[in-house]
């Protein structure tokens, strides 16, 4: 069965939104906390996404952070790449909005649909080219007008300060990969840089959304991001305004 691009995009957005709503219900109504809450959220969201994809796209394969890797995907024409709960630590920490749900679709060597839900903010972004007006909500109001470079709060790259200096900006820690990527999409940050460990599900949906908005996405050496590999480890990432690509890669490429 074949599907139009808008049908896959709509499904990605619908699934990310619904999984996010489920996670909010688990967060507020389960009585769980800490690791138990995070584990329950991961499991419930993964079960939901797998069941819906099996029903709505039965011929497609799925690569999920929370499920066994079905290697048939390596020869499949269409593979959904999902992170049922991106930012588990933030999800299980009261008051945090910087966690997300990622749903992306890969086909013929490229990402063809993607959605990132920010459930705590009640919004889902899809890979749509319609302009997104700058909006706050993920980051505190800036102290000045310098561009913000968002990085992992727990694993900031060694080059964070150098990148910020290269673009005249300031380093700002934030939670999940999806939240950091959407901070750039939303206009709250100018760039998101990461090194030191990620997998395909961490970046596939955020990259699909960011690329649709005209942002530059790639590896820290300037090479493209490639998905649906046998080894799903994809450790580093840059998402930035296009005009910042050269100064950022000029710094990060020295750290390979």
From TrEMBL:
Residues annotated as binding Mg(2+): 65, 83, 85-86, 202
Cofactor: Mg(2+)
GO MF term list: 3'(2'),5'-bisphosphate nucleotidase activity; metal ion binding
Gene3D superfamilies associated with the record: 3.40.190.80, Fructose-1,6-Bisphosphatase, subunit A, domain 1
SUPFAM superfamilies in UniProt: Carbohydrate phosphatase
Keyword list, A-Z: Magnesium, Metal-binding
One BP annotation, GO: sulfate assimilation
Alphabetized Pfam families for the sequence: Inositol_P
Domain of life per record: Bacteria
Reaction catalyzed: adenosine 3',5'-bisphosphate + H2O = AMP + phosphate
Protein name: 3'(2'),5-bisphosphonucleoside 3'(2')-phosphohydrolase
Gene that this polypeptide is encoded by: cysQ
């Amino acid at each position: 069965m074949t599907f139009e691009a808008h049908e896959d995009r709509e499904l990605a957005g619908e699934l990310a939104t619904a999984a996010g709503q489920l996670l909010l219900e688990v967060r507020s109504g389960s009585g769980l906390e800490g690791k138990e809450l995070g584990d329950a959220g991961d499991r419930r969201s993964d079960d939901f996404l797998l069941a819906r994809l099996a029903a709505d796209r039965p011929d497609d394969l799925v690569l999920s952070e929370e499920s066994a890797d079905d290697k048939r995907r390596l020869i499949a024409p269409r593979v959904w790449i999902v992170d049922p709960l991106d930012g588990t630590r933030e999800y299980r920490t009261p008051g945090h909005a910087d966690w997300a749900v990622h749903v992306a679709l890969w086909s013929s060597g490229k990402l063809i649909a993607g959605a990132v839900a920010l459930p705590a903010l009640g919004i889902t972004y899809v890979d749509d080219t319609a302009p997104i007006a700058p909006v706050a909500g993920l980051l505190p109001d800036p102290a000045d007008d310098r561009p913000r470079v968002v990085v992992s709060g727990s694993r900031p790259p060694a080059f964070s300060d150098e990148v910020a200096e290269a673009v005249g900006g300031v380093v700002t820690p934030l939670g999940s990969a999806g939240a950091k990527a959407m901070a750039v999409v939303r206009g709250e940050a100018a760039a998101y840089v990461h090194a030191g460990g990620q997998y395909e599900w961490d970046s596939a949906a955020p990259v699909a959304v960011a690329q649709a908005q005209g942002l530059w996405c790639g590896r820290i050496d300037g090479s493209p991001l490639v998905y649906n590999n046998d080894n799903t480890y994809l450790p580093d990432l840059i998402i930035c305004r296009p005009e910042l690509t050269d100064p950022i890669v000029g710094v990060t490429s020295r750290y390979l």
